[in-house]
From TrEMBL:
<dbReference type="Pfam" id="PF13537">
    <property type="entry name" value="GATase_7"/>
</dbReference>
<dbReference type="GO" id="GO:0004044">
    <property type="term" value="F:amidophosphoribosyltransferase activity"/>
</dbReference>
<dbReference type="Pfam" id="PF00156">
    <property type="entry name" value="Pribosyltran"/>
</dbReference>
<comment type="similarity">
    <text>In the C-terminal section; belongs to the purine/pyrimidine phosphoribosyltransferase family.</text>
</comment>
<protein>
    <recommendedName>
        <fullName>amidophosphoribosyltransferase</fullName>
        <ecNumber>2.4.2.14</ecNumber>
    </recommendedName>
</protein>
<keyword id="KW-0411">Iron-sulfur</keyword>
<feature type="domain" description="Glutamine amidotransferase type-2">
    <location>
        <begin position="113"/>
        <end position="332"/>
    </location>
</feature>
<feature type="compositionally biased region" description="Low complexity">
    <location>
        <begin position="1"/>
        <end position="14"/>
    </location>
</feature>
<feature type="region of interest" description="Disordered">
    <location>
        <begin position="587"/>
        <end position="607"/>
    </location>
</feature>
<keyword id="KW-0408">Iron</keyword>
<dbReference type="GO" id="GO:0006164">
    <property type="term" value="P:purine nucleotide biosynthetic process"/>
</dbReference>
<keyword id="KW-0315">Glutamine amidotransferase</keyword>
<dbReference type="GO" id="GO:0051536">
    <property type="term" value="F:iron-sulfur cluster binding"/>
</dbReference>
<keyword id="KW-0479">Metal-binding</keyword>
<dbReference type="InterPro" id="IPR000836">
    <property type="entry name" value="PRTase_dom"/>
</dbReference>
<dbReference type="GO" id="GO:0009113">
    <property type="term" value="P:purine nucleobase biosynthetic process"/>
</dbReference>
<feature type="region of interest" description="Disordered">
    <location>
        <begin position="1"/>
        <end position="24"/>
    </location>
</feature>
């Protein structure tokens, strides 16, 4: 079935900037510094993509001769000749992530989005398409690319995988030598096509496109303020807020508009912006989500969520976009400023190295493969067991299992085969079919398992439902013993920084002890990676990572908003904050100035 896409239209010269010095993971060496008035934005947090912008604010000047503009600036078109389906049927088919039909994937945290930016390459749209392929694991529900040509922005977005959204004819509609791209994962069930990024809008001084990975925790507060001043929102996306803030800013040039807008954001954001003349990359002061910079041999500058995207398009990795950094690329070269609250301690997401990122990526200046391999080695040293074979839960448990096998001296074998063809089934599975979920995804290899004492390594346990089915599957295939080893500490806290995780009460480690979990999943033994050992491995970088999902200690947390059943990621979180891990506490108050909740002790979770 063809993906549903929307194509819209709203310049850049070849670039030969001086080469950037390759920097160490947490150091900074820009080729040129800008020193605007330093703003002090508040701290940062998590994201969901959603948007099509239209505003009655006088700073916006939509073209009312375009009938689509009376609905929204870039309203999706449901007349794709490749898709002989109604709007409702298209949305119904795609709004249910097929993997959600089967508990194998539903019992994992979900990354929410990947971004790409390319400046000054004549094949920008095709390179962006390939880079998005490399980031497909970061989002499978939608994809989009925006390019600029002769100072006009061109956009193609659609629901589905990158290969379903784009074909040769779609890429031909994206001329120009600069581009931004986005892949999206979401849990919202509303009007998905209009939520696919990049978003593009026109304002008084031109056009701008944006692609965002993260989550803004003060989204609802900012939206309320903007609506009170006349802005009109068409989606529930926090990313739409960013465009409104840029549009109403009186700062000039565009760089300072972004700085001023980001100064009002609280949360996690790694963003790329495209205008008629510039590509801009921005990362929040905590550096929750990854964003890297590279360069092609022809001088083209590339930004991406992970280095695996750079590798695929043959761009050389140069460095991270530093937390709190704004990088502007135009025909004059690369300009950079660390102007967004640079005094905070960075809090990079540790789960990028455990599960989200590709093993061949360098994330936060460290090899993902090396981290996972080491976590497996640590498990073998700290939780040894007599066994005959080590296997992995594919695919995310493979590298840790290799590490466990190498350190323990027990052979690694492929005891579970993952099917990559269970997916877009377009059926409404009955409960009986749902019960086959793990069997549809994972097939045991009886020749490896029968009569053996098996260590099975997985990256994490969230609800525990999948782990129990995997243990049963292995024993039904003849395994004599099944010993679970988890290459992360127990997950006890929800994430507000750009990851879709269950509510606190759904997390099995919040409800049961390790022995209780072992009994629930039916394994012969169970061990998690000790958080102290993880931090010891990270060494001097340890304080620069966020462990909130393991410790319950949040760098910044919306007041009273620990996730509960039924909450969604972008559910209108309160703008009032309890700053827990930053060395001070701000009491949350209601409109009458009264305390809305008891002020917690430092590093205490607000329940």
């Amino acid at each position: 079935m063809a993906a549903t896409t929307t194509t819209t239209t709203t310049n850049l010269s070849p670039l030969s900037p001086p080469p950037l010095d390759t920097t160490k993971p947490f150091s900074f060496s820009p080729s040129k510094l800008l020193f605007p008035k330093t703003l002090t934005p508040k701290t940062s947090l998590s994201h969901k993509p959603n948007f099509t912008l239209f505003s009655k604010n006088p700073i916006f000047e939509p073209n009312f001769t375009d009938p689509d503009d009376k609905i929204s600036i870039f309203e999706p078109q449901f007349t794709d000749p490749d898709a002989n389906l109604s709007k409702d049927s298209i949305l119904q088919a795609h709004l249910t992530d097929p993997d959600d039909d089967f508990e194998y994937n539903d019992d994992k945290p979900r990354e929410e989005c990947g971004v790409v930016g390319i400046f000054a390459d004549p094949e920008a749209s095709r390179l962006c398409y390939l880079a998005l392929h490399a980031l497909q694991h970061r989002g499978q529900e939608g994809a989009g690319i925006v390019t600029v040509n002769d100072k006009v922005l061109h956009s193609v977005t659609g629901v589905g995988l990158v290969s379903e959204v784009f074909n040769q004819s779609k890429l031909d509609q994206l001329p120009g030598d600069s581009a931004i791209g986005h892949v999206r994962y979401s849990t919202a069930g509303s009007s998905m096509l209009k939520n696919v990024q990049p978003f593009v809008t026109r304002y008084r001084y031109g056009s701008v496109g944006v692609a965002h990975n993260g989550n803004l925790v003060n989204y609802q507060k900012l939206r309320n303020e903007l609506e009170d001043n006349g802005s009109i929102f068409t989606t529930s996306s926090d990313t739409e807020v960013v465009l409104h803030l840029i549009a109403i800013s009186k700062a000039r040039p565009f760089f300072l508009r972004i700085v001023e807008a980001c100064g009002k954001l609280e949360g996690a954001y790694s963003m790329v912006f495209l205008t008629e003349e510039k590509l801009v990359a921005v990362r929040d002061p905590y550096g929750f989500r990854p964003l890297v910079m590279g360069r092609k041999s022809n001088g083209a500058v590339v930004f991406a969520s992970e280095t695996c995207a750079l590798d695929l398009i043959e761009a050389t990795y140069e460095r991270e976009v530093n937390p709190g950094e704004v990088i502007v690329v135009d025909k004059s070269g690369v300009q950079s400023s660390l102007c967004l609250l640079t005094h905070v301690v960075r809090k990079a997401c540790i789960f990028e190295h455990i599960y989200f990122a590709m093993p061949n990526s360098i994330v936060f200046g460290r090899s993902v493969y090396a981290s996972r391999h080491k976590y497996g080695e640590i498990l073998a040293m700290e939780a040894p067991v007599e066994c005959d074979v080590v296997i992995a839960v594919p695919d995310s448990g493979v590298v840790a299992a290799l590490g466990y096998a190498a350190k323990s001296g027990v052979p690694f074998q492929q005891g579970l085969i993952r099917s990559h063809y269970v997916g877009r089934t377009f059926i409404e599975p009955s409960q009986k079919i749902r019960d086959f979920g793990v069997k549809l995804k994972l097939s045991p290899v009886r020749a490896v398992l029968e009569g053996k004492r098996v260590v099975v390594v997985d990256d994490s346990i969230v609800r525990g439902t999948t782990s129990s089915k995997i243990v049963r599957l292995l024993k039904e295939a003849g395994a004599k013993e099944v010993h679970m080893r988890i290459a992360s500490p127990p997950i006890i806290g929800s994430c507000y920084y750009g990851v879709d995780t269950p509510s606190a009460e759904e997390l099995i480690s919040n409800r049961l002890s390790v022995e209780g979990i072992r009994d629930y999943i039916g394994s012969d033994s169970l061990a998690f990676l000790p958080i102290e050992s993880m931090k010891e491995f990270l060494g001097d970088d340890s304080p620069n990572f966020c462990y909130a999902c393991f410790s319950g200690k949040y760098p910044v947390l919306p007041t009273g908003k620990v996730k509960h059943t039924g909450d969604s990621v972008d559910d209108g979180l309160s703008g009032s904050m309890e700053y827990i891990d930053g060395g001070w506490i701000q009491e949350a108050k209601d409109d009458n100035g009264k305390s809305r909740s008891p002020v917690p002790e430092k590093d205490e979770v607000v329940a």
